[in-house]
């Protein structure tokens, strides 16, 4: 898969994290606790327009907490729900 820009990549990741969190029916606070990251950091990750890089380690922690494969965060074609 290819992304036209870093912003497109980060937006895809943030939307997918939010999507899987909502699918699991947990709050940002619960996910942050399970992933062992701060709620403010998770909030920034899920925010539209995220423009800073994320470590693979943090993505792995979030994927493990959501019980999804880390590669799912890069899928550009997941149906989004608001």
Automatic annotation (TrEMBL):
Residues 17-73 form the HTH cro/C1-type domain. It holds the Pfam family HTH_3. One of its GO terms (cellular component) is cytosol. PROSITE patterns: HTH_CROC1. SUPFAM superfamilies: lambda repressor-like DNA-binding domains. It comes from Phascolarctobacterium succinatutens. This is Transcriptional regulator. The keyword S-adenosyl-L-methionine does not apply. PANTHER family: HTH-TYPE TRANSCRIPTIONAL REGULATOR (PTHR46797), METHYLPHOSPHONATE SYNTHASE (PTHR46797:SF1). GO terms for molecular function: DNA binding; DNA-binding transcription factor activity.
């Amino acid at each position: 898969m290819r992304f036209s820009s870093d912003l497109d990549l980060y937006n895809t990741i943030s939307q997918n994290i939010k999507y899987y969190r909502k699918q699991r029916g947990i709050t940002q606070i619960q996910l942050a606790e399970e992933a062992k990251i701060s709620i403010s950091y998770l909030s920034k990750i899920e925010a539209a327009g995220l423009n800073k890089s994320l470590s693979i380690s943090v993505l792995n922690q979030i994927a493990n907490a959501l019980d999804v494969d880390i590669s799912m965060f890069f899928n550009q074609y997941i149906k989004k729900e608001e």
